[in-house]
Model the fold of this input.
Amino acid sequence: MKAAVIVFPGSNCDRDLAVAFEQAGADVTMVWHKDTALPEGIDMVGVPGGFSFGDYLRCGAIAANSPICQSLIKHAERGGYALGVCNGFQILTETGLLPGALRRNAGLKYICRTVGLEVASADTAFTSGYSKGDVVNVPIAHHDGNYFVTDEKLAQLRDEDRIAFTYTDNPNGSVADIAGVVSKNRRVLGMMPHPERAADTGHGGTDGVAMFRALMDQFATA
Amino acid sequence: MKARVYVMLKNGVLDPQGEAVRHALGSLGFDGVEGVRQGKVIELDLAEGSTEATVTEMCEKLLANTVIESYRVEMG
Done:
């Protein structure tokens, strides 16, 4: 698998995400936000966590309009894969590649701790290493992770089995406990929790490893 | 010329910050505050001849996230 990880001013999980991809066996290229094109032959684009552009205007709003994101949108429209974590999820909703929006946490506090996630769908390239109903422990670290979609869109997400992860104990007020959703073609995943921070014994947990391994398997068999 | 853009969370979208302000006003003894919604105002300094249609396009593309926010444009 050839992966690119986008770096924005204010990204701070870009290297963690790159290491998680590399440890699973991927070739990783870091890509600067001002670049206008992704490198040739990229299978997967990682959109990392952090505080791109200082969260000015809205989390992810400025990043979503950066030059590289035009290439990211084209990559996704061609059927390419993308994984957005935390600020990366916010950016993917701002680009319109994923539905909904992330609001300020209901309790108004920045929350940084490990939470339980239920695998709501194992039918994606990202979650095929888990079974539906599995509970995994993955850290969250966000101020604006309160996922919002309209009732109508929520019904659609449920009908299309596009909710990838839900919180076992909703920390931020997200609609329907949603922690992560996939695109209609199931190749773009956005999630607030950080699987790349649960990818090494040194992190205190390795429940995220199965995601990166499953992605590698996807491309090994493709 | 100037334009002013008011961005608010849509009705029906919970505004936790507005709720916190409402509680704080209650603690200060201001009774009867039944709701608070917090938004933002963006002032644009524009070249003469800029149109409201352009500012609306700016809102749609960047200044507001129309999934959760509504906006209003005031020209001049």
Strands of chain B lie at 2-9, 40-45, 69-75.
